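It is worth pausing here to work through a concrete case rather than discussing structure prediction in the abstract. The textbook approach is simple: state the sequence, then state the predicted structure, then interpret. We follow exactly that order.
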Amino acid sequence: MNSKLTTAEKVQAGLARRRRKEFLFRLSGMLATAVGIVFLMVFFATLIGKGASAFKQTFLLLDIELNEEVLAPDGELDLAYADFDSLVRAALRKEVADVSGRSERRELNRLVSIGAGYQLRDFVMQNPELLGTTQPMWVPAASNIDMLVKGNIDASLDESLRQLSDRQIGWVEELRSADRLKSKFNTALFSNGDSREPELAGIKGAMMGSFFMLLVTISLSFPIGVAAAIYLEEFAPKNRLADLVEVNINNLAAVPSIVFGLLGLAVFINWMALPRSAPLVGGLVLTLLTLPVIIIASRAAIKAVPPSIREAALGIGASQMQVVFHHVLPLAMPGMLTGAIIGMSRALGESAPLLMIGMIAFVVDVPGGFTDPATALPVQIYLWADSPERAFAERTSAAIIVLLVFLLLMNLAAVLVRRRMERKW
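Step two, the predicted structure:
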């Protein structure tokens, strides 16, 4: 019997090995994809589980007597500087029985946020005719009370192991049984700036700072990046200088973002003396960061335009400038816009270069312009994550959720723009 394999048998054996290897490769790819999806689901589940509670806040219903004698003991009423906290504390003492002694009153007063007095002041300044009446108002509870209501503080622990005393927990239960304790949508998270008090802290200032920075970034990076891409692809001579510029652009796209922050600190703040912690400086730094990405994406979009388009336009007498701006640029614009949106997504999530230019400062006021002190959403997340107070942990997760939603929307916009405007040849 001949032990040698025929050609057909060798081919069949080789095909079997190749099919086994292909099956193993596909299986490994499917397993890797499944593991990645599982980790992603765990990440989102953990993030949402920790941050969803921040979108609700605990409030107390108090019947506040707007007594002018308390607000103006000397007879001269100035609403901007009146003692509205006394009115809030007096209304709270009416709702809780058996409170005596200074220490108990201090414990009771800590059930209400210090922002309740400011809320009442704004309400009275808008409605001064209500002075002398009693008004029911929902005022924010202190962060520890909010944590207790949300189940983040274990009331069964020993009193020395938690931030609330047994008396305070008893008062909370008393208010809850009287329907004067309620969880409502946390509008302060989206309408307030930063604060040292967790129940008053919001992301509006950070969102406005990010908005102004991205406005500066897109206004500068997109036209400069597109113009650079057009010149390099259509007009620049093919020589060593052009090759050097191309290599440097590709290298800049991989430079760590903190290097751009150091460059912005040295040039825009130290040399040009622009205001520190301003959206204008942040936008300029992010422009340097996103320019390489936009240039590379725009060049790829220009290269994707078929040469026949250029040849046809030149054949009917169009100039080089007309070919580029009347034919090549409109066809390459979808890819350019996609690259710009992706670059803006990267800029929105950057925090390292902004830390270098001083945007880590504690800024309470919402910025109203490009030169006002501001922070950005990623930096705000960094600040809250570094805070020792437990109530800031859920607000950190909530801010991350908001940031991820913006990033997903921007990437979705890039996909929709690409599909809607692209042309296939």
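Step three, interpretation. The chain has two domains: 60-186, 204-421. The chain has a mean pLDDT of 88.
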